[in-house]
Amino acid sequence: MASGNGHLLVSLTLPTVTREQYVEQCKERARALLRVAQIREAVTSMMADMRKHPDCGVPHEIHVTGIFAAAAGDAVAARAYIEGF
Fold first, then answer.
1. Which end of the chain has fewer beta carbons closer than 10 Å to its terminal beta carbon, N or C?
2. At what angle do helices 75-83 and 39-52 cross, to 10 degrees?
């Protein structure tokens, strides 16, 4: 689409993803990391993803569970953290 001054105007539309869909995508990435025993990376991925979406704000206290799980190398606790969203 051209504007009156000869410049090309581009309309960008972002796909609309519900909060539930976004969280599920985040969980899938974290689960994939857990499957290959990358516990710290799985927790870090989930934490980072939850910070990226405006509707996924989580109190820091919730992330402490994941941080402790990652520090202990506890895959069961890390999975519980991830699935808790």
1. N
2. 20
Q: Which two tokens stand for residue 75?
A: 């895959």
The whole-model pTM stands at 0.78
DSSP 36-71: TT-HHHHHHHHHHHHHHSTT----HHHHHHHHHHHH
Residue ranges per domain, the chain? 19-83
Q: Which whole number is the average pLDDT over 35-64?
A: 93
SS3 8: strand
